[in-house]
Amino acid sequence: MKAIWSGKKTLALLGMALFVLGLTVPASAARQLLQVDGSTTVGPIGDAFAEAFSELYPDCSITVKKTGSGDGAAALVDGRCDIAMMSRFMKEKEFRQAVEKGVFPVAHVVAMDGVCIVVHPSNPVAALTAEQIRKIYKGELTNWKQVGGADMPIVPISRDTSSGTYETFHELVMNKEKMAENVEYVNSNPQSHSRVRSTEGAIGYVGIGFLDRYVKAIKVDNVMPSRSTIAKGIYPVSRPLFLFTNGYPKLGSMAHAFCAFYLTEKGQEIVEDKGFVPLTEY
After folding, report:
1. What does pTM read for this prediction?
2. Whose CA is closest to 276, among 62, 4, 95, 43?
3. Does the domain at residues 113-238 carry the CATH identifier 3.40.50.2000?
């Protein structure tokens, strides 16, 4: 009898604890408005996380804007968003501006990505070295026949300079060297994808989540971008994807739940479904 009462007491205490947690964690989070802004690369993850949260916390309100990593950092510094999505680490200048305004950026790595070099599916070129790609974007190689392809002008497509994807490409492939005047700049991964898809002579770069049958990823330094090569850091243009907050988010808040969601089974499924590499792959 004593054992039965002890068990009931334990269940009662457990039920009370769960009830309290139910009030303090989801209910507290549900009352919050969460504004997310930044990278178009991280954007699909942000959108999917927000959709999942709308089911978990139907009373909460989450807005996701995809304006680029640089704009996301600026929005966090200016207090226009709660979470900045960034496909690169925050720059020293951005950190300095943040601290001057009393903002203390904290990085949360949510996935791994690869900046994939893509060409039109009809292009027979299947591999380039980082040096060849750099020479294309510097205007030193202007025809595909110079790299084993057809006699066709090369049309280089780049992300705009405020993009985190641009920053990664500029540092890891271009060695921070200036691009040629004939390089065409676009504002997002979808635009880069669309431009390459519709132009036989085009070359561009997108996050691994944007690869499909309409563009062809090529090897870089003889390594094909894939979940495995990116997770292991073998692919030369691999990078982490971030969410940045002003300080570490309060435990139990919607911001904390959002930034930690990638660790849950559902969060990992979303990251994988969007074509990125979950951190749990390591």
Report:
1. 0.73
2. 43
3. no
Quote helix, strand, coil % in the chain, to nearest 5: 45, 25, 35
Q: Where in the chain is the domain with CATH 3.40.190.10?
A: 2-111+241-281, 113-238
CA distances to 45, 62, 145, 256, 275 from 37, rounded to whole Å, are: 12, 11, 42, 16, 20
- Interval 97-117: pLDDT, tens: 999 999 999 999 999 989 999
How far is CA 55 from each of CA 46, 51, 268, 269, rounded to the nearest angstrom?
A: 15, 7, 17, 16
Contact predicate 207/116, CB 8 Å: yes
Predicted confidence (pLDDT) per residue in 34-85, tens digit: 999 999 889 999 999 999 998 998 888 999 999 999 999 999 999 999 999 9
Choosing among 3.90.79.10, 3.40.190.10, 3.40.1390.30, 3.40.50.150, the CATH entry for 2-111+241-281 is 3.40.190.10
Question: Residue 65 pairs with which residues in a beta bridge?
Answer: 37
C-alpha count within 13 angstroms, C-beta hemisphere, residue 257: 22
Residue with tokens 């390089």: 183
